[in-house]
Write a structure and sequence with these properties.
Keywords: Signal. The chain has 8 helices and 4 strands. It is α+β, with helices and mostly antiparallel strands. It has one domain. Strands 1-2-3-4 form a 4-stranded antiparallel beta sheet. A hairpin with a 2-residue loop joins β3 and β4.
């Protein structure tokens, strides 16, 4: 009788541990995690969900992403003294606003590994390539009106920024989608984005220019 009781106790204890283990994971499904990441990074939505899902502040993430955008865009203009950071920051805001208005995305899990799943995000981002001819024509017109623009890097940079400010609000969503991979790693009851900064940069590229890395 004692042996039978011990056996039953072990069975019940094992079952309880199993149920406890199954119920301990409160992490959202990988696809939902991907949607939360995109909505927070690009559309400034699901901010609280982002913190619950990834354990990090969305506010800090968004500030860092904007700062990175400003730094990289300034580098392409060869303006590194910070004098045009506000203007470039305005471009970031314009991109985000237009992306909210016209872009779209879908997501699907392509690797179902419980601890290291992969989600593919298909993005129909802003078709900035179709605006390039217009921006170039606008820049040439400005240089023709004021030849010093072509010789002064600050004036040239301002002209480029103004061209983007005019073009971005008119950009339409690309008919062709580009793919961005999100690699997740299980982190207790949350997820961790593998190489998060690179993922965010690829996501911005996809939504803001409809191009892949």
């Amino acid at each position: 009788m004692r042996k039978k009781f011990v056996t039953m106790f072990v069975v019940v204890l094992t079952a309880a541990i199993t149920l406890s283990a199954c119920g301990s994971s409160n992490a959202v499904e990988p696809k939902e995690a991907a949607n939360i990441a995109v909505n927070t990074i690009i559309f400034n939505k699901d901010v609280e969900k982002y913190k619950d899902t990834f354990g990090k502040s969305a506010t800090d993430l968004q500030k860092n992403n904007k700062d990175t955008f400003i730094k990289r865009f300034a580098a392409t203009l060869k303006i590194t003294d910070g004098s045009m950071n506000d203007d470039i920051g305005g471009l970031y805001d314009a991109y985000t606003k237009r992306a909210k208005e016209v872009t779209k995305y879908t997501s699907k899990v392509t690797n179902t590994d419980a601890k290291k799943p992969t989600v593919e995000i298909s993005v129909n981002g802003l078709d900035m390539a179709s605006m390039q001819a217009e921006r170039l024509a606008d820049f040439k017109a400005k240089v023709k009106a004021d030849p010093s623009i072509g010789k002064d890097k600050n004036k040239s940079a301002k002209a480029v920024i103004e061209g983007y400010k005019t073009a971005i609000p008119k950009a339409k969503a690309s008919k062709k989608a580009v793919q961005v991979k999100l690699n997740l790693e299980a982190n207790k009851e949350q997820w961790k984005i593998k190489d998060g900064e690179n993922f965010a940069n690829n996501l911005y590229r996809a939504f803001f220019t409809s191009t892949a890395q």
